[in-house]
Structures are given as structure tokens and as C-alpha cells.
Specification:
- Helices cover 41% and strands 23% of the residues.
- The chain contains three helices and five strands; from the N terminus they run αααβββββ.
- The protein has helices at residues 2-8, 14-65, 79-86, and strands at residues 93-96, 99-102, 118-125, 134-144, 151-161.
- Strand 4 and strand 5 form a beta hairpin.
- The termini are far apart.
Length: 162
């Protein structure tokens, strides 16, 4: 009788256990990949937001140092015109504490507050004085991407009305 009881008992075989472990491993692997991708996307969105804020800050400083016909008193001390007159119209620059600086200046990357970033402003239309009717600038912030496989870039164009 004892022999019959053992024959009727059943348990998990090693093959069944291995199949369960493989399915669990696959589920955990997919979960990890999804979570990792979500973290990378969040980091990329954060960096994009920081770069957009840096570009906007450069645009605001550009507006503050450029003259318009509504402000004739700044024509004699126009920092933007003075800088553009002293440099090639297509040269890149950034604005640090209200002063135009060559984009190779060590203070320019700090304006983006991103590791490995560069900030550059380039005049793309009506670059020489006198300006008519307006001057257009391209503000670019570039930084190393999240994966370290290239560069991400945010570009804003702005026209200073005259």
C-alpha cells in the first residue's frame, strides 16, 4: 500500500521549473529595458528643457543689448553693433553678463548649464549696420546626448525689430 501512495504523488519536474525561471527572467528583462528607456527619455527631456531655457536667456540678453528705433539713446553705445562691426558678420558669439563674447570664450558653455554644452549666436540676416528693417539671429545650444553617441541641439531664431 505504501508503494501505491508514492506512485500517485506528483511534483514539479526540473524542466517545469526551468521554464518558469525562463519566463520570469524574460519578464524582468523587459521591465528593466522599459524602465531604463523611460529614464533616458526623462533625462533627454530635462536636458532639452535646460537648453531651451539657455537659448531663451541668450535671446533676452541679445534684445537687451541691441538697439531699436524706439530707443535712439543707445545708438552711440550699442554693444551689439560695436561687436558685429569689429568681427565678421558670420562669426559666432554668446552674451555673458550683457557683453558679447566670442563663442570660443570659456564663459560661453557655462551659459547653458549642461555638461559639454556650447552656446553660439550667429547673425543670419541684415547683419551690417545700418540695419533695415530688422536683424535676425540664430541662437544654438548644443550638448552631448544622453547616450554619449552624438550631440543634441536646440536652435531658436529671433529677429530684433528696428
Amino acid at each position: 500500500m505504501l508503494k501505491k501512495l508514492r506512485a500517485n504523488q506528483s511534483g514539479d519536474t526540473i524542466v517545469e521549473v526551468m521554464i518558469v525561471l525562463a519566463v520570469l527572467g524574460l519578464a524582468i528583462g523587459i521591465s528593466y529595458a522599459t524602465a531604463n528607456r523611460s529614464l533616458l527619455n526623462a533625462r533627454q527631456a530635462q536636458e532639452n528643457s535646460q537648453a531651451s531655457a539657455a537659448a531663451q536667456s541668450q535671446v533676452e540678453q541679445l534684445v537687451s543689448i541691441g538697439c531699436t528705433s524706439k530707443n535712439p539713446t543707445c545708438a552711440t553705445n550699442n554693444l551689439l553693433d560695436n561687436y558685429l562691426a569689429a568681427h565678421s558678420p558670420t562669426s559666432s558669439f554668446c552674451i555673458v553678463a550683457g557683453q558679447p563674447k566670442d563663442s570660443t570664450d570659456s564663459a560661453c558653455p557655462a551659459q547653458a548649464a549642461l555638461p559639454g554644452a556650447s552656446v553660439a549666436i550667429k547673425c543670419i540676416a541684415s547683419c551690417t549696420a545700418p540695419v533695415s528693417p530688422a536683424r535676425t539671429f540664430e541662437v544654438t545650444v548644443s550638448w552631448d546626448d544622453v547616450l554619449g553617441q552624438g550631440r543634441d541641439t536646440v536652435t531658436q531664431d529671433y529677429t530684433i525689430p528696428q
